[in-house]
Amino acid sequence: MLKRYPATFSVLLLGAAGGLFFWARPAAATPAGEAPVAPAYAACPPSPDGIGKTFHGREISQVMGHPGIGWLERTTREKEEAPAKAIAMLQLAPDTVIADVGAGSGYYAFRLAPLLPQGEVVAIDIQPEMLEHLTRESARRGIRNVRPHLGTVTDLRLPPASLDAALMVDAYHEFDHPAEMLASLRQALKPKGRIYLIEFRAEDDAVPIKPHHKMTEAQARKEFAAAGYRFLENKPGLPWQHLLVFERP
């Protein structure tokens, strides 16, 4: 089994001696179009790969920062994850403005950019080191429509209704403030804007990824419904991952 710490969006963990506990009353699912309810955070004993904080019953995973660029750019990634197929499945219009949330090394951003000649990839990360790498790579590759953008663990820091879509690849399960991030995304997306969520399939024991770095479709749908999103489909065909599509009503 691979030692999986694949943060394309590296999260700052909050804590102190003895641990920091997060309590909130459980949140029920929010009907599409209505404002989301209070975050469903709670505490749990930290597992070896978790942070001791749960969201809708799921313990949030630990993360890996910018030293993990080698994992993101590994030569076996196309064989294992088929990112070229995943990108084709998005079927983006050439003028799409899409956020790559947790862009990391820019693996997806630089492959999306040529498909959007009238559009833009907003490559969001919270680590300045990742953004510096993105800036250098954009210059080296001569790509002008990838825009590195610094976010926070709770806020994308984007104008309202500025995005047509957002992509999160193996990143969402590591957000330590997922409710706040989903709310920030909701604000940044245009009406009918879509979120493409790519996560390793937890339903499949044959996927050689640590359990905390996988998600089930049911869990993802629960969390996104509570944040006010509408589930559209799960696109099949990737070797190890779900490609779940959600819409802002």
Give a verbal description of the structure.
With 249 residues, this protein is α/β, with parallel strands linked by helices. It has a single domain, classed as Vaccinia Virus protein VP39 (Rossmann fold, 3-Layer(aba) Sandwich), CATH 3.40.50.150. The chain is built from seven helices and eleven strands. A hairpin with a 6-residue loop joins strand 10 and strand 11.
Quickly describe the structure.
This protein is an alpha/beta fold and 249 residues long. The protein has a single domain (41-247), classed as Rossmann fold (3-Layer(aba) Sandwich), CATH 3.40.50.150. It contains seven helices and eleven strands.
Key attributes of the depicted protein:
249 residues, alpha/beta, Rossmann fold, eight-stranded mixed β-sheet, three-stranded antiparallel β-sheet, 11 strands, globular, disordered N terminus
Number of DSSP-assigned strands: 11
Tally of individual domains: 1
Shape: globular
Please state the average pLDDT score. 86
Based on helices, strands and strand pairing, what is the structural class?
Answer: alpha/beta
- How large is the share of residues in beta strands? 25-35%
Biggest sheet overview:
8 strands, mixed
CATH superfamily: Vaccinia Virus protein VP39
Helical proportion, percent range:
10-25%
| CATH top level label | Alpha Beta
